[in-house]
């Protein structure tokens, strides 16, 4: 289509033949950026009529070309002779020069000298050859206009232009920014890079500071290497430039007004960062090596440890927090983002200026792990944005023992994944510390200016194996032969400074000795460390420490105020038109508040939030479709049918209420749940809730449950009050959507690490949610939340149950059954209760009692014993579940139930009624599901059949 139009254009105009390609290129260049064509041509094209840009994001070429076709017929004849003939060789070459400039901007990085070892295999880039653009060495002395090139000259000989381009784009900095569609950002990079040829001239003081930081980085590894030979430390050797990089990042962010920086990183270089960036006391690290750590919790290996400190910058004190990290390399990324967002929300920092996320990645994991992509995808969304993350890849060109390009990834760079959000990528040779400094400044400035993610790809190497006990040359023989001969980054830089007379040998040695002495003394080695930190820079967690799960919470609420709030929530702004079914729900809620209708799940749940924010507890809820609710029960966000505008009644209750934030999330579980974990572990005062669209979706976030939620407190002493609502229930929806995999969470339970609840009434969910916020205990709460119960005619509550009740860990028999008559007790949780109840009523059975266990973990043994003790004549006791026998609560919780039963009566042996063992969580055929369900009800109620 494009070709065809252009052909038409030229064949009907007098500008034809050999000029076609030339004019076309020129015109395309003009469309991309008018400043890139020579002035005379710009003026000419400027005369052409414009299309209405407001109707199109991309300038449509076709109409312009068509206009151009008409105009060119009339106008080109009258162009002044001074504008030159289009067939002029010089003009054609001028355009080629501009295209050469563009080629360097787009692809120069592919020729950049990024690899300190010189082993990186680079693809050939024809676009960077003069010949490719119809130019040759014979043109090198010809003076051309420089177009939009920022080299301070409007015209320059081609050789100077090429020299500037080579130095800017093909030296030790390789910049990728041309994939950014925003012209302002592209121009920003061009200006910043080209004006200094990507290598600003730094003063002596800066250079010596760089050397001092490199000395620290290298010195620590050497020291640990000789004091603890062969002990795993995942040394930074080969990537020492990370330490000056971090130094600049922190200092520069501080000058921009950052108050907190949260860092996520895997194990490589972590000890170095802890000591040389965060200022951990060196003697504390040595104690860990010596096995002298105190055992307050279960602990973790030293290269997973987090840390906090405050450092001074020219912009003031900055709080640094290094997040604890499990061995699952990239999962800390969304956790850090969540922690940052929580801190930004606390500071009402909407733009992200005050709190900066920094993620340090390994090259193999960055390319390989899906959560990296998910985290990028969070970066500009309403619920998860943090004003841009500074990503640093410690690219040592090998992942454990795997380094072949064709094995580790499918794209040229490990950083290509960042392009999904158009993040600029600054590749830099780690052995050029000044270039590292420059790209760091660029990255911090870019984030500050555009509030978006940016990536520094620190191309370096790994001097030793994956860890210090690992021999790398077996798998990477050539690379390690090269590394053996490679002087350290510090050595190279010191030599460079000595050669340019910035440094003397003596001073270089003195720096090394000073650092070693500081280590010998076991002191802090970060000079900017603030010894008495400003504690206002972080949250006081002491009110939340030391509570048991049995801690009481008063979750009652004044009935009048609840009715007022409920009334307000049904008031909508003038002119706001809600959808018909939603109007009906609101009408029902008005009646529920008035006590004229039984309270259902949706009303009780939203009232839990409303009463909490009214009492000053902030609430944040995210997850797929949480505004409405997967099963359409919540309607916490209303949508105006006239213009689609959304309105959140709970966020607009009163001027002095606590914040209520609710966002539909992107379709991610792993990153989103990691984010909410990070948020919850940073903000004890906010009730943080994540809801899975269906319970089985949480499978995709299993690593977050395993490595953070269930064990973070015991490994790292980090409390977390995160609540997860996981829809669960056997309703014939097939193998996946029936089960939230209760058994998985129960398997992770020990030492009262999490709470697992299966509330079965609206009042129960109301009090469970309120309890989670009101009592100072900060423990994760996993909820098997219902689906059909949301509308079940028996799953209702009264207003009094909401206002005066509390969460009950077990629920007693509700029918008028005489306890003495009971010879069989059924214990169950969730939806199956109603199936049992209805059938028992239908069959008029009066010798079977049904009690519900609403909190499966921590198991409420005391409360259950109290409930059951009245059934003195019971001879049978069952656990009834819908899940297959190898799933649900049976295997993980039967010992608790058995103990309660046998304590009551040693002859009372626990039995099971439920589905048989099964590989699949549920039947896929409705008929089979119903048959199984019928059978388990019959088994439980002792009915024939
Ligand atoms: P941070 O800002 O994350 O460095 O936290 C500052 C201090 O608050 C930490 O050193 C801990 O003492 C405490 N703290 C932070 N998060 C938690 C948490 N989730 N549980 C308990 N204490 C915490």
**How large, in whole angstroms, is the Cα Rg?**
34 Å
Spatial order of the strands forming the largest sheet: 3-9-10-8-7-4-6-5
Helix tally equals 33
- The total of beta strands comes to 24
Largest sheet: 8 strands, mixed
What CATH calls the topology of the largest domain is Rossmann fold
The end-to-end span amounts to 73 Å
SS-based class: alpha/beta
Hetero groups in this structure are: adenosine monophosphate
Helix content: 25-40%
Mass-distribution shape: elongated
Report the β-strand fraction as a percent range: 5-15%
Classified by CATH, the class of the largest domain is Alpha Beta
Uncertain runs are 1-18, 51-61, 67-86
In the CATH hierarchy, the architecture of the largest domain is 3-Layer(aba) Sandwich
Name of the CATH superfamily of the largest domain? Thiamin diphosphate (ThDP)-binding fold, Pyr/PP domains
Number of domains: 4
Whole-number mean pLDDT: 91
Catalytic activity: N(6)-[(R)-lipoyl]-L-lysyl-[protein] + 2-oxoglutarate + H(+) = N(6)-[(R)-S(8)-succinyldihydrolipoyl]-L-lysyl-[protein] + CO2
EC number: 1.2.4.2
GO biological process, one term: tricarboxylic acid cycle
Family: Belongs to the alpha-ketoglutarate dehydrogenase family.
